[in-house]
Amino acid sequence: xxxxxxxxxxxxAARIFKTRSIAADACKNGRVTKNGVxxxxxxxxxxxxxxxxxxxxxxxxxKVLKAIENRVGAKLVxxxxxxxxxxxxxxxxxxxxxxGFVDRARGTGRPTKKDRRAMDAFVEPAMFGxxxxxxxxxxxxxxx
Length: 144
Description:
The chain has six helices and seven strands; from the N terminus they run βααβββββαβααα. The protein is α+β, with helices and mostly antiparallel strands and 144 residues long. The strands form two sheets. It has a five-stranded antiparallel sheet. Strands 1-4 form a two-stranded antiparallel sheet.
């Protein structure tokens, strides 16, 4: 078995990207790094190296267990790489999912009933979480 493979082929074969051309574009656009350095699609990776892939808003990190260039079935993916992504990245992903309705894309139409309820639940504690009691009384000032 080969101990090295092209990064664009490996990203596609390991099912990190849907097509090889998308993997190559990600490399060209600086979304794939090794040791903090952007790498080209033709870069050769070896077993044991760690590759970082930016898929906004998360940066995934993968340790290469097998250097393959042919696509494998989904059940064999755990043999190809080990996911060593920082847990904080997944928290970031969850936060973006929760707050995703705030930045609705133009042209997506009106929010659904579920979206509206989620927005109300998100906004309501911040807006109405204050006590109604004040330290001073406004009525006394008006009477004087």
